[in-house]
Amino acid sequence: xxxxxxxxxxxxKYMDCVEVCPVDCFYEGENMLVIHPDECIDxxxxxxxxxxxxxxxxxxxxxxxxxxxNAEYADKWPNIATKKDAPADAKQFDGEEGKFExxxxxxxxxxx
Length: 112
Ligand code: SF4
Ligand code: SF4
Known about the structure:
Its cofactor is [3Fe-4S] cluster; [4Fe-4S] cluster. Ferredoxins are iron-sulfur proteins that transfer electrons in a wide variety of metabolic reactions. With about 110 residues, this protein is of the alpha+beta class. The chain has one domain (about 5-85): Alpha-Beta Plaits (2-Layer Sandwich), CATH 3.30.70. It contains 4 helices and 4 strands, in the order βαβββααα. It has helices spanning about 15-20, 65-75, 90-95, 100-105; strands at about 5, 25-30, 35, 55. The longest helix is centred in the middle third of the chain and has 11 residues, at about 65-75.
């Protein structure tokens, strides 16, 4: 199994998760992060740290799309292990439905 980052990370990107991951397996896109499924050791410490409740174990079910997104973009985006400031308007998008369809960007973020 692995943990995956899901819809509510998009445009929130608070980054509390990256500080606690013992194996630094988060990767940064322009407006969300993903977890590398082959690097995640399933420790679960990041899940409660996410203020947007966007991190889920893939065993939750119904997360196939997100597993695919995490796997694909972890290979394309740069690694991130140090917390940066969240976007100024992050709160405004917290909890909005269907963010992937509306806002997902395949562009990479800056990484560390
Ligand atoms: S803490 Fe949650 S919302 Fe923030 S970057 Fe990590 S997964 Fe995304
Ligand atoms: S479950 Fe552990 S290893 Fe996997 S992303 Fe979260 S903190 Fe990192």
